[in-house]
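Researcher: Re-running this chain for the archive, since the previous output was lost when a drive failed. Same request as before.
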Amino acid sequence: MDWKSTAVISGAGILATWFFSMPTPPVPVRAVVARAAPVTAPAAPKIDIEKEAARLQLHRVQEPKYTAPSRNPFRFTERREPARETTAPVTAPPVILPPPPPRITLDGVASDSNNGEMQRTAILNAEGSVVLAKEGDQVAGYRVQKIAADAVELVKVVDGSVLRLGLR
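Model: Regenerated structure tokens:
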């Protein structure tokens, strides 16, 4: 589309908007004049003001007496301590949890043939760092015992507990 056709379409849109937004001419309305009957208010009863004032004086409502509030939100006082019990609560001895194991995950296993012999390397993620370990290496307090195609067996150096990791 070139600039001429764009100008023609825009101009047509502007003209159409102008024609449809023009107000419609007012329709002449005939004025109808009718005669209305005069409205008269009903006669108000005559009230004796002095009698009404005397009647209201007899039934005077007593004002409530002022009493000082028991609490003043603008004055601070010392905090009252709640009454304490005389018996001490029984508390359970603290539970001692063993330290969590280090965060070691198996990310992969690489294999390489060396002189016709298959040698595997475990790709471990030990506490945020990548470690390449072979059988017999130590990683984060563990010794790599065995590396399979999809799993690694780690033995804790301190107590000999076994940790088996598999691929996710």
